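Milestone M4 deliverable, item 7.
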Amino acid sequence: MGREYTKGFVRKHGGFWQAVICWQENGKQHRISKSTGIECMANGNRGKGAAEDFLKRWRDELVLEASQENAFSSSTPFIDYVSQFIRVREGNGKVEDTTLRTYYTHKKRLMGTALGNMPIKDITYRDIEEFEQDLLDDGLSSSTRSHIHVFLKQVLEKARRSGDLIANPFDLVDAPRRERKPINALDKSGIKKLNKNLAEYEEGPFKLAVRLALMTGMRQGEICALRWKDIDEKRREIHITHSLKRVNGRYKLGSPKTENSIRTIPYGNELSKALGERRRAAERECAALDTRLSDDSYVVGSPIDGRFYSPQVLGKNWHTFSRICGLKGTQNQGVRFHDLRHTFATHAIASGQDVKTVSAILGHANAAMTLNIYSDALADSKRTSMDMLDGVFSAM
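Output delivered:
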């Protein structure tokens, strides 16, 4: 059953242009929206043309996806539906390589099983429970089983929304509960060790990237996508509007991870000094070639040829640096670059910052998500607060 999309429209939302598309299904009007990542002003239409181009490309993708999925029906075997689901997303060219690899891994788990060979119209919640019990018997972790559950549920939810299913049988099955992994952040001594080694490291993109991660909690792709126009040096604010994502083997500049990831991060004196030093160094490089530093230049990239610092290269450089320094996290494991984000969050919460503020800085969907990830840090913060209150209430 095809879906007729309207041409859609763009509107201002939270300082950015938002694309909106509608369609009618079963007598009901539906609407979906998506941030374009293009900034707008309260007054005027600056950026509207680029936003409308984004809207057109997005609508074309939705129409293509709907036409491809229309060839399938409720009699299609589940494994074939999964294959088509992956092909459509791969064809869109917007799915990250790591996500695609995960999709194919989940598909392999389904191949050759009773659930995989079953027409989607015949699948019941009992079939799903039996399949997931087999995954447990095979020794798969709760996290892996949960990821497979969520992916397969997403596939059949697409089938339901496309009209190939009346209801999604996964709605009747709870996802396997994930065992929360402890955060492997740097403690205070680890941060001192990092800063001591970093002070001896040459000034440049790598050193600044590490400082940005440690002092703001920015993600790797966000740091590498940061441009000078995203930084308000007077107000000391960083505007996260883009991220670098690897698609079809190449990094591309695109929207951040989620709409909540589009955010503003304030920063302090130390990072202000580091950014100032980096800007002056970039300006000197440009002046040597009789050119000027562009606001579109990447902060941790090359100011001369406009190339960004690859997130993959940054990760490798960090791995080498942290191994040489002998950095270990709170779980006595080697520290990944992403663990610098965890370090920022745990120490921000432990120092007394409210969870809602930390959540907004990190770009999480809500404070509950932050609470779930950093509950240990919150417990330490509560303990510190209670110790302080104990001193207040026992004062003579």
